[in-house]
Write a structure and sequence with these properties.
- By secondary structure, the protein is mainly α.
- It has one domain (about 5-65).
- It has helices at about 5-15, 25-30, 30-40, 50-65.
């Protein structure tokens, strides 16, 4: 399963089709922190720490090489 397929699968389970946010396409292609805060806001009540920023940037780099 590709990264895009994974994001599509998660997005389908996070929103009801009749309630899809018009910004969904923008969010699907966003960096990991933006995507996470949009789809999992209850896990991100505070701003990300430096460790989270670093880790997300590393994961974003990895995913960019597999697209």
């Amino acid at each position: 399963m590709s990264y895009e397929e994974f994001l599509d699968r998660i997005a389908r389970h996070c929103h009801h089709p009749e309630k899809i946010d018009p910004e969904l396409e923008r969010i699907k292609n966003a960096d990991l922190l933006t995507w996470s805060r949009y789809f999992l806001p209850h896990y991100f009540p505070l701003p990300p720490s430096e460790m989270h920023i670093w880790l997300a940037s590393q994961l974003d780099k990895i995913s960019a090489t597999h697209r």
